[in-house]
Structures are given as structure tokens and as C-alpha cells.
Write a structure and sequence with these properties.
single chain, 2 domains, alpha/beta, 335 residues, six-stranded parallel sheet, globular, 10 helices, Rossmann fold
Length: 335
């Protein structure tokens, strides 16, 4: 078995107070418990969900001060007792919901939260293997199980949105992409999206109603929340389902019509990767793992706008907040 020298301490970006900048600190390397894995982190992206967790809008399960960072890629350098599904030295993608997230030189996770990566997948590509790609994979499964032929998706120019429209259209599912700016309309159209609507248009609701009924779009994935959730659901065909997987607006879901729920058979429910149990989940299904690795090189490949060393992470986060359509940023803890 390959052996690595484990440092007593390592550098990490710590969250000391929700809504505040991260602080670079030297922290003690944790001792592994049963089922745990220590990963030397090579790359970690900043996702919208990371921003929401850092601001305290999402439950994190962390005890502050803690190292944030939901996902990343790296190499397994130490395993705890009774870990049998991965070996030391394996290149992996991982999620980390412990106090030792991915924004550090090392991260602590469990053996059930890792996915081995093919040798020809770089750490950069592998860093964004989970939050967006697996969500998109399971969104398609959910759509197929609900029997939908078309869907509506908000914040469609995001990294996830651009993955989704390619993957869904390749799978024969039409996507009505909803964005807020004309340049986002043009971006998606340039990348091959067939249907794009600007929610700031005066005719948005009328156009959405007509297109949703024409395509029979009965599934709606929403990551914004607030009043847009109810506004869009009200324009969809009877028996449509809204799946809320984010809350970028920071506002409670509103404008849900009782008529829509009672008389039109519409439903709304949550869709969250960490609580979603499905047999086709790459964390547990070997065929799904192989499929994910293949798609990471093509349809579900992530592009990054910029990369930052760990001590410049706050600068990177500020850039990302202002330029999310440009692509994610990537943190490189060992640079």
C-alpha cells in the first residue's frame, strides 16, 4: 500500500462567522474515525451553494469556526478503520460536510462520499464532479420517472444550467430555459439551447404559458425561490411538479396559488443532492460511476473562469459573485 507523510497541521480557509470573509489559518490535522478518509486536496470549486452555506442561508451542520467547501478533487492519503471501498493513493472526487471542507490543503470526509476518477480526468475537471453533474444526472432520472417530455429551468445560464440543457436535449427532453438578461439569452442560444425566455420581458408569463402547453412541460426545476416559483408554476399545465433545489433569491417561496395545488393538481417539493436517495446514484452504483466519468470528459465537463491559490480565496469569491455567468472559480490549496 502506498504511504504518505501526514502533516500535523495544514493551511485552510476558515469560516468564523456566517456572512463574513474567510480567514486563512493553520489548523490541526484530524484523527480519523471509523469510515473516514483524509484527502490531500488538489482543487476545489466555488458553487452557488457554497456561497449560500457561507452566508448562513443553508444548514451546514458545521460548528464554527470550520473549513467550508462542499466538493473537490484530490488523492486519498489516509483511511480510517473499516474503509474497504477505496485505497490510499486513489485519485477521487469528493464531498465534505464535516468541519474540514474542501477549502484547505487536506479535507476529511467519509468513504461513502467519494467517487474514484479515471486517470485521464484532471484534478481541475474532477473537482466539479458532484454538485452539478450528479444533480443533472438525477434530475433527468426524476424527469423520466415523472413521465415529462419537457421541463422548465430557472437560472439557466449557470454552469449547472448549461450542463443541463445539453444533457437533457441529448436525451430527448426539451428544456425551456429561463434567464434574466438578454446576454444570457444569446449565450444559451449560441450553445444550442432551443427555447430561452427572459423573465424580465413584459410578455414572459404569456410566452411561458404558450410554450409550456405546446411542449407539455410538466416538470419545473427552480433554484431561485421567492415569488418566481409560484409565478412560473401557475403558467404550467395541470398536474405539473415544481422541484426546488436552491434559494438564490434568499427569499421564502411565495405566490403559490391554492387553485394550482387544489384544483389543478400541481405539486411542489424539495430536490437536494445530499438527501436524495436513488439507485442510479454514482456514489453507490458502479455503472453510474463509469457513466459519470465518461460524461465529465464531454457533456458534463466544467469550464472555469479563473483559478486562485488558497490565500486569494476571498478575492476569488468576490469575483465569482459578480461574474457567475462567466463560469466557476477554482481554488488550488497547494499553489
Amino acid at each position: 500500500m502506498q504511504q504518505f507523510e501526514i502533516p500535523k497541521t495544514f493551511k485552510a480557509a476558515q469560516l468564523a462567522e456566517y456572512g463574513k470573509e474567510l480567514q486563512i489559518a493553520e489548523i490541526k490535522t484530524p484523527e480519523l474515525k471509523e469510515g473516514e478518509v483524509l484527502i490531500k486536496v488538489e482543487a476545489a470549486p466555488v458553487n452557488p451553494s457554497d456561497l449560500s452555506l457561507n452566508d448562513g442561508h443553508y444548514p451546514s451542520g458545521k460548528v464554527l469556526p470550520a473549513v467550508p467547501g462542499i466538493e473537490g478533487s484530490g488523492v486519498v492519503v489516509q483511511i480510517g478503520p473499516n474503509v474497504e471501498n477505496v485505497k490510499v493513493g486513489t485519485k477521487v472526487a469528493f464531498t465534505a460536510y464535516s468541519n474540514y471542507g474542501s477549502y484547505g490543503q487536506y479535507s476529511l470526509t467519509t468513504s461513502q462520499q467519494i467517487i474514484p476518477l479515471d486517470d485521464d480526468i484532471s484534478f481541475e475537471a474532477g473537482a466539479s464532479s458532484i454538485v452539478n453533474p450528479i444533480t443533472v444526472l438525477l434530475m433527468l432520472i426524476e424527469t423520466q420517472e415523472l413521465g415529462a417530455k419537457a421541463i422548465v429551468h430557472t437560472a439557466a445560464s449557470s454552469a449547472l444550467g448549461r450542463m443541463l440543457v445539453k444533457y437533457f436535449q441529448d436525451s430527448g427532453i426539451d428544456v425551456i430555459n429561463v434567464v434574466r438578461r438578454q446576454e444570457q439569452v444569446e449565450l444559451l442560444q449560441k450553445e444550442g439551447a432551443k427555447y430561452v425566455l427572459n423573465q424580465t420581458s413584459e410578455t414572459f408569463q404569456k410566452d411561458l404559458n404558450a410554450l409550456a402547453h405546446k411542449l407539455n412541460a410538466t416538470v419545473f426545476f427552480d433554484c431561485i425561490g421567492g415569488n418566481i416559483t409560484g409565478e412560473i408554476l401557475s403558467q404550467l399545465p395541470n398536474k405539473s411538479t415544481a422541484l426546488l433545489y436552491g434559494l438564490l433569491s434568499g427569499q421564502p417561496v411565495s405566490d403559490i396559488s391554492a387553485i394550482s395545488l387544489i384544483f389543478q393538481g400541481k405539486t411542489i417539493k424539495g430536490f437536494w443532492l445530499t438527501t436524495l436517495i436513488h439507485k442510479y446514484n454514482p456514489f453507490v452504483d458502479e455503472n453510474a460511476k463509469k457513466n459519470l466519468n465518461a460524461l465529465l470528459k464531454t457533456t458534463l465537463k466544467t469550464e472555469y473562469a479563473k483559478q486562485y491559490p488558497l490565500d486569494k480565496i476571498n478575492e476569488g469569491i468576490q469575483f465569482y459573485k459578480k461574474n457567475q455567468t462567466s463560469g466557476k472559480i477554482l481554488v488550488r490549496p497547494h499553489q
